[in-house]
């Protein structure tokens, strides 16, 4: 890389401006900074720098030994060895301080080439060091604007130095031909040869480094995207767990509260008439027995739904493979009949032509009526209640009204109302829960059905 005659591997490039190369990068790349190297990478760089320093000194000895004429090794006969080793030592910090390493390497290379052109500048190890410094700056520089300024400065400086070397060689008439006429004169061939090699070396190391930088940026973006995706998946999993818990909570509340409430009412009635009317007490106990069996069946059905992903578990947990009829609109008349007793008369009305409803809507309608009637028995003084199912053109509506008022006793946790609103909202419907202006209480829910069926 020395501008001295006879040295062809000069390492100087008349490469295109780095601004041109960098301008091809998307604007978003300027905001990305490559993470600093790890401790292990820094230790590797130190090892590489020391190994190349030893190799540089050994290469200088090989050049001195192979020379047909004695070579000047500089001050004390060791300057050539020292410079050949000092240039590669700058690579010990190449990835930690890439721009400073490039500048230091360029200065050391210039000193070696000026002091001992045939030893320092022509040493293959020192030339490789400069190319590695350029590659590292292109691949690891965090501030890309500073990198552009630095690389321009280094390239222009090396080009000027090489031009001075050509001028010195021309004045000293050091370039002589072999006596064979060629296409070009010896001097022109020398200049073209050196410039071509330098362009190949400089541009090659520069583009190699830019490719490594782009690859690192893409890898970092992929890692961030993977991390964001993993966080989104975790968030979705958490939401799914919460939604499932809410669904289970609603199902348990609707199943258990309804039947336990019925059992409580019947047990209280049986206790009051046990001595005066044993037959009525027996009837109440029969209702309690039937309600408890129904509750157990529905609990088993719910457990079976939760374990539907692995039907083999049914036998392990003792859940029968034969399910009780699932809660749906078709069972509303039976539900209303079960809710009617001496204290509460419940009527059922259907308006419109029966439609086949989506399973989710059908189950929700049943559960809403079940919860509403449970609340009437537990928290109201109502004597009558009416359940109305309306099949509309594009929706289905369920309404439960009563003629009572809230009891003085505590009105409960209101989780049933929350569950009703959640069910309706989940299916894109509308709900209305509250007292009526003419007295009593209303629970009304409307579900769109056409979109559900699509």
From TrEMBL:
Enzyme Commission designation: 2.7.13.3
Domain of life: Bacteria
SUPFAM superfamilies: ATPase domain of HSP90 chaperone/DNA topoisomerase II/histidine kinase (SSF55874)
Pfam families assigned to the protein according to its UniProt record, in alphabetical order: HATPase_c, HisKA_3
GO terms assigned for molecular function: kinase activity
Renumbered residue ranges of the record's region Disordered: 1-40
Transmembrane region(s): 46-63, 119-140, 147-167, 187-208
Signal transduction histidine kinase subgroup 3 dimerisation and phosphoacceptor domain residues: 244-309
Enzyme class: transferase
Catalytic activity: ATP + protein L-histidine = ADP + protein N-phospho-L-histidine
InterPro entries for the chain: HATPase_C_sf, HATPase_dom, Sensor_HK_TwoCompSys, Sig_transdc_His_kin_sub3_dim/P
Stretches with biased composition (Polar residues): 1-17
Alphabetically ordered keywords of this record: ATP-binding, Kinase, Membrane, Nucleotide-binding, Phosphoprotein, Transferase, Transmembrane, Transmembrane helix, Two-component regulatory system
PANTHER family: NITRATE/NITRITE SENSOR PROTEIN NARX-RELATED, NITRATE_NITRITE SENSOR PROTEIN NARQ
Protein's UniProt name: histidine kinase
């Amino acid at each position: 890389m020395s501008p001295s005659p006879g040295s062809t591997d000069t390492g100087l490039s008349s490469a295109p401006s780095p601004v041109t190369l960098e301008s091809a990068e998307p604007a978003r790349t300027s905001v990305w900074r490559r993470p600093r190297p790890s401790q292990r990478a820094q230790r590797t760089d130190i090892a590489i720098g020391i190994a190349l320093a030893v190799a540089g000194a050994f290469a200088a000895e090989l050049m001195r030994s192979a020379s047909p004429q004695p070579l000047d090794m500089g001050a004390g006969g060791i300057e050539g060895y020292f410079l050949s080793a000092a240039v590669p030592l700058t690579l010990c910090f190449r990835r930690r301080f890439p721009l400073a390493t490039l500048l230091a390497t360029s200065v050391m290379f210039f000193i070696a080439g000026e002091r001992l052109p045939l030893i320092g500048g022509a040493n293959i190890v020192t030339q490789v060091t400069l190319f590695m410094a350029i590659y590292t700056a292109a691949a690891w520089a965090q501030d890309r604007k500073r990198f552009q300024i630095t690389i321009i400065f280094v390239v222009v400086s090396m080009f000027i130095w090489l031009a001075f070397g050509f001028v010195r060689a021309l004045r000293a008439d050091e370039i002589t031909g072999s006596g064979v006429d060629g296409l070009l004169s010896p001097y022109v061939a020398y200049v073209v040869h050196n410039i071509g090699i330098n362009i190949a070396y400089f541009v090659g190391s520069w583009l190699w480094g830019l490719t490594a930088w782009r690859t690192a940026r893409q890898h970092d973006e992929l890692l961030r995207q993977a991390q964001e995706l993993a966080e989104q998946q975790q968030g979705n999993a958490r939401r799914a767990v919460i939604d499932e818990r809410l669904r289970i909570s609603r199902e348990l509340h609707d199943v258990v509260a309804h039947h336990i409430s019925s059992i409580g009412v019947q047990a209280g009635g049986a206790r009051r008439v046990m001595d005066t009317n044993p037959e009525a007490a027996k009837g109440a106990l029969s209702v309690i027995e039937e309600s408890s069996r129904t509750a157990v069946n529905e609990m088993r059905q719910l457990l079976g739904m939760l374990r539907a992903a692995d039907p083999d578990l049914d036998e392990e947990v003792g859940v029968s493979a034969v399910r009780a009829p699932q809660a749906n609109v078709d069972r509303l008349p039976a539900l209303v009949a079960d809710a009617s007793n001496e204290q509460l008369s419940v009527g059922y009305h259907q308006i419109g032509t029966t439609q086949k409803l989506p399973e989710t809507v059908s189950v929700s309608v049943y559960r809403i009526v079940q919860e509403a009637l449970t609340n009437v028995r537990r928290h109201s003084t109502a004597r009558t209640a009416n359940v109305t199912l309306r099949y509309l053109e594009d929706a289905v509506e369920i309404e439960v009204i009563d003629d009572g008022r809230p009891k003085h006793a505590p009105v409960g946790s209101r989780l049933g109302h929350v569950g009703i609103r959640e069910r309706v909202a989940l299916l894109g419907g509308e709900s209305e829960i509250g007292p009526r202006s003419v007295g009593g209480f209303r629970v009304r829910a409307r579900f769109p059905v056409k979109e559900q069926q699509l």
